[in-house]
Each structure stands twice: as structure tokens, then as C-alpha cells.
Design a protein that fits this description.
single chain; about 70 residues; two-stranded antiparallel sheet; globular
């Protein structure tokens, strides 16, 4: 993996041991049980920082995503 590039891996949990320790995992899934959903096709996105560098960036990433959401 090139440190200056973005790599998307579908089903990353299958190859997790080959992934770098510093990464941002993105999980796309159905809404959790009991969550209020707006449609049958709605998906939720979780950003899961892995490693110190991504944990340090997580507040800034969350703030930027909130800005983009328009809420």
C-alpha cells in the first residue's frame, strides 16, 4: 500500500491482517435495529479510525463531514 494513495478494499475484514495499521475503515450497512429509517434502501456509514494518526484526525474528519451534510 502506498502511503500517498487511497485504496478501497471491499470485504476488508477478509484480508485485515494484510492491511496497514494506520487506516480509516469505512463500514456501510443497514441501520441498526430500532433506528429510525427514512427508506427501505437507506444505509448508514461508519468511519472507524485505526491507529494513532487516524484517531488524531477523527474530530476534524467528523467536523468536515457534518459541514458537508448541510445540517
Amino acid at each position: 500500500f502506498d502511503g500517498g494513495a487511497v485504496t478501497l478494499v471491499e470485504w476488508g475484514d477478509v484480508v485485515e491482517s494484510a492491511l496497514p495499521p494506520e487506516r480509516l475503515d469505512v463500514r456501510i450497512d443497514w441501520p441498526p435495529a430500532g433506528a429510525r429509517s427514512t427508506s427501505e434502501t437507506e444505509r448508514w456509514v461508519w468511519l472507524l479510525p485505526q491507529g494513532r494518526a487516524w484517531h488524531a484526525r477523527s474530530a476534524a474528519v467528523a467536523e468536515r463531514l457534518f459541514d458537508l451534510s448541510g445540517e
